[in-house]
Write a structure and sequence with these properties.
Length: about 525
């Protein structure tokens, strides 16, 4: 007996401190590595080892009986410390979220995670009460078995949800983050446990908790996390070639990502038009687009429809409606011909508008009359991109209706407003300098109508009137300086200045000659 006491005394004196030092070094090493097992080792060092050492001293050195109260209390502490340590081990090995890169973790559903922890706690507590406190655990379970029918009836909804929860986890019809719809309810899955599934919808001011039993018996539509496809329909005349219509329809999504309304944004920045069928009064097209299911449909459909309307006017496409068509029949040839719908003539309105512009006051009525015949009228919808920076300008744009924003990307890559223009202002002045690309993007701030003066017509104005040419050059130089300042640059790049100066040097002699002569195109 004395020899046994001596051995256990050496174990306590030498073994426990040594093991404590080893565990402490392991904790420091794991903390440097940010290991997930650090809490497990820390619980062993902090709780389990001291309590086991005390228990060994009481049983082996002090020779206390196992049924004594102090020994039972220490054994209870050992079992509780073991439970805490095992729970920390389960938390380190299993996770309900995405596993950390490089970590030895398994991702499992939250219901399974909770079931594993509950099982460990129940088993160890059963062992604690049975072996340490000599409680007849079997008798307790038998007593519970007698009342199991009553309990089952009282908790049948809870048990139904529990079983349904396990079945849903095994079947896995959805996962956290998916968008689901069932029985008129829809939303993102934000949580799933043994009793219910929690849904969230950006349109709600609250979350909805759905019992697993309800979901188990419902038809569930799972749209996942990649968005859903939707389509809208539109018709165009048989006189409009389908390939031209399809190409025009692809432009309606340009710049839509800048819309301030998040419900009017697409998940895929492009739209995909298709020919559906040949109808009675026109060719039917469908335009497919991808959007997040949580976002409402009205805003995006309104944005696309308004753009389709403006695009149709811009490309001079006809959107037919079902009416009777009048035919003229040539009695001699016997060939019917369709009488087209005549558009109202806006020539007088455009001429009056151009005549009122101060920068065209240098020209007489004949020149302005010619301009009114040569300009092109185009329509753009709210938030539609008219000009993209880095692309050549189609011509000189004159605002007939609405307002636009000129913006650039600064050196940090952020959009920055340069100008806001309204009716009568112009943009696209790079069309006056052949080979130059637009330094700014232009966005419609409302429904916009513009008159576009093509390159050749704009060049004729410059060649025919030096005052107009000088004023345009001043506009160009001023806007370039503003653009570079908005970008966060103090000076215009040297190569760009040399190019502009060279162009001005080529123009200036002829301009001075014209200024000293009597030109019939200059208004007195």
């Amino acid at each position: 007996m004395e020899r046994s006491v001596l051995i256990w005394g050496l174990v306590i004196i030498l073994g426990v401190p040594s093991l404590a030092l080893i565990l402490l070094e392991c904790i420091r090493f794991m903390e440097r590595r940010k290991s997930l097992l650090t809490p497990v080792v820390r619980n062993l060092w902090r709780y389990v080892l001291p309590l086991v050492a005390i228990l060994v001293v009481m049983r082996k050195l002090l020779q206390l009986q196992a049924t004594s109260l102090p020994v039972r209390l220490v054994e209870t502490g050992v079992w509780l410390a073991t439970i805490v340590t095992l729970i920390s081990l389960i938390n380190a090995v299993f996770t309900t979220k995405s596993a950390k890169p490089g970590a030895f973790q398994f991702q499992i559903p939250n219901l399974f995670f909770q079931a594993i922890r509950a099982s460990v706690i129940v088993l160890l507590l059963t062992q604690l009460f049975g072996s340490t406190w000599k409680v007849n655990v079997g008798g307790i379970f038998q007593a519970l078995g007698v009342g199991s029918v009553v309990i089952a009836l009282a908790l049948q909804d809870t048990f139904s949800s529990l079983v349904s929860g396990f079945l849903l986890l095994f079947d896995r019809p959805f996962k956290i983050g998916d968008w689901i719809e069932f029985d008129g309810t829809k939303g993102y899955v934000v949580d799933q446990n043994w009793r219910s599934v929690t849904l969230s919808n950006p349109g709600w001011e609250k979350k909805v908790v759905v019992p697993n039993g309800v979901l188990a018996g419902a038809k569930i539509d799972n749209f996942g996390q990649e968005g859903v496809w939707m389509g809208i329909n539109v018709s165009f005349s048989y006189d409009d070639p389908p390939n031209r219509v399809l190409a025009a329809l692809q432009t309606i999504s340009i710049g839509l990502e800048r819309n301030e309304n998040p419900n009017a944004k697409l998940l895929d920045p492009n739209v995909y038009p298709l020919i559906d069928s040949f109808g009675d009064s026109g060719i039917n097209y469908s335009i497919w687009f991808k959007k997040m299911p949580a976002l409402g449909n009205a805003a995006i459909i309104n944005a696309l429809m308004s753009r389709i309307y403006s695009m149709a006017k811009r490309y001079k496409l006809t959107m037919p409606y079902p009416i009777g068509v009048q035919y003229n029949v040539d009695a001699n040839a016997g060939i019917p011909s369709i009488i087209p719908n005549q558009l109202s003539d806006r020539h007088e309105e455009i001429f009056t508008f151009l005549r009122s512009l101060p920068y065209l006051s240098y020209f007489n009525s004949t020149v302005v009359e010619t301009l009114a015949e040569e300009v092109t009228l185009k329509d753009y919808a709210l938030e539609e991109l008219i000009i993209q920076a880095g692309e050549p300008d189609e011509g000189l744009y004159i605002l007939l209706q609405g307002s636009v924003q000129l913006f650039i990307q600064d050196i940090q890559g952020n959009d920055k407003e340069v100008y806001r223009l309204c009716v009568g202002d112009f943009f696209g002045e790079m069309a006056l300098l052949p080979g130059e690309l637009s330094p700014v993007s232009v966005l419609a701030l409302e429904d916009v109508q513009v008159l576009i003066l093509n390159h050749s017509s704009a060049q004729k104005l410059i060649d025919s009137n030096p005052r107009f040419a000088l004023e345009m050059n001043q506009y160009i130089e001023e806007r370039k300086r503003t653009v570079y300042l908005a970008k966060g640059l103090e000076n215009i790049p040297t190569e760009h200045v040399e190019k502009v100066d060279r162009n001005d040097a080529l123009k200036l002699p002829s301009l001075l000659e014209q200024l000293t002569s009597d030109s019939p195109n200059i208004k007195d």
